[in-house]
Design a protein that fits this description.
Two copies of one chain form a homodimer. In chain A, 33% of the residues lie in helices and 23% in strands. Chain A is an alpha/beta fold. In chain A, the strands form two sheets. Chain A has an eight-stranded parallel β-sheet with strand order 9-8-7-10-11-14-12-13.
């Protein structure tokens, strides 16, 4: 049997290799690098093929495919969301992704994306806040202290200058885990016993809860003037985190309206309720925060272009020498029409 | 850094391992096994989540995602179609696929599918012919002698008792390649100089051409009474192989109408032109061939359930000991909420 040609081998970045990459680059520079890639792609948003993700729902979770293309590269992510998984010791969200060459259709990168999604979600939130949060924001509340919480804290520290984090979770063990993980990162940490306590003095409130059954994390009276809301956890039909009255008082910014109207906080509103697309703010075509006393809401559900940006960041690292495996994933006979002959010569027929 | 847990490791069947598997099982038994799996899933068609594939078109090709689920397992295939690839020594079609557990969203198999798609496409064609072709069919014409041709010949020999194959391609080198590959397989082979010559005496006509520019492979006068047409190559918008007049004389069988109306031969007909779903014939709910003198047409475009069946076949082989690699693809911290802690403990933060 002859060895597969270079064309047939697809670079694969494993979980261990992604951890090495984060360690080598440093989490903060990597969050900054990812935010830069996402920002650059938001600026050229109109060049992308866009479609709401393709979701397969079951009673206990969802499996989604999130494709996009800029005409040169094609990318997609596989991602699940199973809030009950933690009870079995499994991740709520796992993911992997792929980039391919549009000109040939050949894959050029396969990568773990459980870690990468955590980073890109936090980078996107912080990018949005750069345009939407009050300029002098230094204190952020994080409600929901699961797998995403520390990444949010680090991204807002790195990109927005947040110095104080106020933590709350219905499970105090999650809050302790989060505080322990963040203790040497130069952040002032306040562990709170209630969500009401957590939002005291916070100019930014991040909600990143996972469970469908706690559908109203913030009520109207908890959100005062001049606050930026970063709603990360409401991301599928029937799952929201904010009371509807808060939405009615907010300037709402979204990634891709056709998807957010199905999955985001705004599923609680009329289908024609005005929203602003975040890319337009990034591209200078729409205003972000207008009024220091206003409430801004980034109704984040995660969009395919953010994953595309993150995968391209990883591909650039691989091309610059980052460690990866090479997967024998594509059959590649010498004569492309001779797939059967390849089997014959391998002794398989 | 601790080793990933079993949960994090996804079995991966490479191209070399797929060739070994085909060699160990034997191509004919494997075609039969795949056809059995596909037939079993066609019988329970209504249990599946079905959606037309998600296509990303460019000027020179298409990249598609084909998801489906039976409520227990979820599967999808990535596949491209780039007719111009052969000019660069690349495959027109490459593919890989994945199965996941619906209950957790965790992937359970990643597999090459360039070879597997070639096998499942041929197995599906032969399965359809079992229900649609004349009972005494022994002679098949194959027009288009590219990568799919030999697999069609072997599947029809194995599943339908075809003994004579008449080959034609606009490129005589392709026909010679095909005949050379099939020469020790117990088939009588006739190399033809024209499509008209190839269809002489054939009870089954298989068209499997790849290039968009030769849009009418068969004209009306070439198709006589009692013939079964197996149209494999017309499978994307703007790409068909049969003259419209043939369609008007045929009983048309399709996989999944919402997809076939976009991609198949029937894109040339009115949107309400009557067609029969193949699964209904397999399940005994609709008639297949009614009249020995009639023309039947399997307007095949390939559907996600066929890939799902093929992936399950491979998963069963892996579970029975077939060779595979284990990919460290899913981040899996001890405490599922502690993704950040996994990075910390790995020294990555």
């Amino acid at each position: 049997m002859t060895a597969p040609s270079d064309r047939a081998l697809v670079p694969f970045v494993s979980v261990a290799q992604m951890m090495s990459l984060i360690g080598r680059i440093g989490l903060k520079p990597m969050l900054r690098g990812l935010a830069d890639e996402i920002e650059a792609d938001f600026r050229r948003w109109e060049m992308f093929d866009k479609t709401p993700r393709v979701a397969s729902h079951s009673d206990i979770g969802v499996i989604e495919l999130m494709p996009t293309s800029d005409g040169e590269s094609y990318g997609f992510k596989y991602v699940n969301g199973h809030p009950g998984n933690t009870h079995q010791g499994l991740q709520t969200v796992t993911a992997f992704g792929l980039l391919a060459d549009v000109a040939t259709g050949y894959p050029i990168l396969l990568s773990e994306m459980t870690l990468l999604t955590a980073l890109r979600t936090a980078a996107t939130s912080a990018l949005a806040a750069k345009y939407l949060a009050p300029r002098d924001a230094r204190c952020m509340a994080i409600i929901g202290n699961g797998a995403q919480a520390e990444f949010q804290a680090m991204a807002f520290q790195t990109l927005c200058g947040i110095t104080e984090i106020r933590l709350y979770d219905i499970d105090p063990a999650a809050t302790r885990k989060c505080a322990e993980n963040l203790r040497n990162q130069g952040l002032s940490l306040v562990l709170c016993a209630t969500a009401e306590e957590a939002v005291q003095g916070a100019q930014i409130i991040t909600t990143c809860t996972a469970d469908k059954q706690y559908a109203t994390i913030l009520t109207d009276n908890m959100v005062g003037a001049g606050v930026h809301l970063n709603a990360v956890g409401g991301d599928c039909p029937g799952k929201t985190e904010l009371h509807r009255d808060i939405l009615l008082r907010s300037s709402i910014f979204v990634e891709y309206p056709p998807q957010t109207r199905i999955e985001g906080e705004i599923q609680a509103l009329e289908a024609d309720h005005p929203v602003t697309e975040l890319w337009q703010v990034v591209a200078g075509r729409a205003e972000g925060r207008r009024d220091p006393a206003g409430i801004t809401l980034f109704d984040s559900v995660g969009f395919a272009i953010e994953d595309f940006s993150a995968l391209r960041y990883v591909l650039n690292q691989v091309r610059a020498g980052a460690e990866c495996d090479l997967l024998d994933m594509l059959a590649d006979p010498d004569d492309p029409r001779d797939l059967f002959g390849m089997l014959l010569r391998a002794g398989a027929v």
